Amino acid sequence: AQSVTQLGSHVSVSEGALVLLRCNYSSSVPPYLFWYVQYPNQGLQLLLKYTTGATLVKGINGFEAEFKKSETSFHLTKPSAHMSDAAEYFCAVSDRAGGFKTIFGAGTRLFVKA
Amino acid sequence: DAGITQSPRYKITETGRQVTLMCHQTWSHSYMFWYRQDLGHGLRLIYYSAAADITDKGEVPDGYVVSRSKTENFPLTLESATRSQTSVYFCAGSGAPGDTQYFGPGTRLTVL
User: Fold this and answer.
1) Could you report the per-residue pLDDT of B43-74, keeping only the tens digit for each?
2) Bond before B8 cis per omega within 30 degrees
3) Based on CB atoms within 10 Å of each CB, which residue in A33, B62, B91, B111 is the most buried?
4) Nearest to residue B90, comparing CAs of A3, A49, A104?
5) Of B94, B99, B102, which to mutate for an interface test with A (greatest number of A Cβ within 10 Å)?
């Protein structure tokens, strides 16, 4: 069965510093992988996704993630944090074996310090 | 704008009452989903629908009922609300299984 683990429920960085949010997944077949962002009192919105092809995926707002099959990871990065990046981030996985149901991680709240 | 609206945005009810949360889409998403979001649990799937009149259970369906008589509407009913159903509920739509989901703004439900 699919599963997603996000390491760290809270991450704090200084403005201008590297953002790294960790996600590991479990899937018996090639997965679809997603990162969503949730701002306060809003629904989730897609940051980026990996389905097939290039393993480095670029998303909105300067974020990118790399699919590493050998490490079963899909970590999210951004070179330089901005105050507006403060939000909750969710990693998600779906695959054929799971009927393409999407499984979400527990979320990581990103704090950005001035 | 993926056109998912939810109503009401906030609801307070009492234990044992029936509550219906509405979800409407202006896009033609085939798939629609209901999730609940609780601290420490991320999003958990309650029910989903692949098309009008086709619905199926997700991870946490007990105590909930859904219907989808029209493609654009996917209401979620709590037949007899319990305190454990206090949560934020999100409706989402997708064009294909496993593809990007587009979320509504959520309904914050409090059961007293």
Assistant:
1) 999 999 999 999 999 989 999 999 999 999 99
2) yes
3) B91
4) A104
5) B99
Tell me how many residue pairs between chain A and chain B have CB atoms under 8 A apart. Answer: 52
First-to-final CA distance of chain A: 41
Q: Mind listing the pLDDT tens digit for each residue in A53-105?
A: 889 999 999 999 999 999 999 999 999 999 999 999 999 998 777 777 889 99
Comparing C-alpha atoms, which of A98, A89, A105, A47 is closest to residue B97?
A98
What is the residue-averaged pLDDT of chain A?
A: 92
Chain A neighbors of B96, CB-CB under 8 A: 100
**C-alpha to C-alpha distance for B101 and A35, rounded to whole angstroms:** 11
- Tally of CB atoms within 10 A around A65: 26
Give the residue numbers in B contacting A (CB under 8 Å), as ranges: 4, 35, 40-45, 48, 58, 90, 92, 96-106
Tokens representing residue B46 in the block: 């309650």
Comparing CB atoms, the residue among B48, B101, B105 nearest residue A42 is B105
The answer to whether A43 contacts B90, with C-beta atoms less than 8 Å apart, is yes
